[in-house]
Fold:
Amino acid sequence: MLKELSDFLRHRKEDIHDYLGGGVLARIIGGVLGVYLLSAVVLGWWWSSEPDVIDVNQYSQQLAQEMHRERVTGFTTAATLLFLTQTLLDKSGGYITNDIFPPGIWLDNITSWEYGVLVQVRDLSRSFRKDLSRSQSQSSEDPDLIIAEPQFHFDNDSWALPATESEYLRGIKATKRYLARLSDPKQSGAQFYARADNLTTWLSDVGNRLGSLSRRLSESVGREQLDLGLAGDANATQSTQAEGAQERKTPWMDIDNVFYEARGTPWALVHILKAVEHDFRSVLINKNALVSLQQIIIELESTQESVWSPMILNGSGFGLLANHSLTMSSYIAQAGAALIDLRALLKQG
Structure:
């Protein structure tokens, strides 16, 4: 009897020990998980902060001094391309779009901002390769820009083999080589042609981007749209018959993503246009277009005001709540309209 009682007590003691041990382990795991999640939230808040707008003239001047070079024509614009791409990789949290772990995988707003900047990097690098660095259509392409332009067009969310960052770094290195050759008085192979036609071609791409963004932002509350693809040409045709009026509305879950993409695009354009103001200054003055460019910059700078609301509001056009997308659309549409005037001035003799 005593032996049975002793065995019973021993087994109960082992059960209690296992229970307490398991409870302590569970609490430790829970504590570690809680600290990790809290740290991820704090990091996510920090990583979601957008970089400030800088003075690209001061930045390019400092870069020229570090390279022991003069700021030749095109140096500021090329340096701005470098700044934009390096910012994507070096800002708080680094490049986040291809993150597969928290908190990066949760941060869709800053990844949309990154995409808006990246589109402008791609457009500008393409303009460098096919227009800005070439004297005419039959001239050779710059060997470093041949490398840089496709690198910036690499998949923006590849996390391994190869990672997006490594491909963009190759583009950055190639752009640095072009910039070094461009500012070397002993070399004439690298060139930058600040001509009105080159600037007009790039501005055409910018206008298309802004027009698309403005439309997508205005669709946050839904809008009826007719097909205008053949307007203005009685003999024009299209591949398939388009429907009549269509109701277009941005999905609720995508509204903040479109907004932050629209924040990233003007952020990049403000820097590029200020560089253009420096490198194309004589052309702009000759065409009486300098003020028009400066007005575009002012409109785009307005899009960078702080967003004090904890979330992107989507009130109706004349409702009680604000609609951040429509406000952003207004600034971008005004910049787009001023851009049309600027292009018209540049095309004049």
Observations:
- The radius of gyration is 27 Å.
- Strands lie at 223-225, 246-248.
- The longest strand covers residues 223-225.
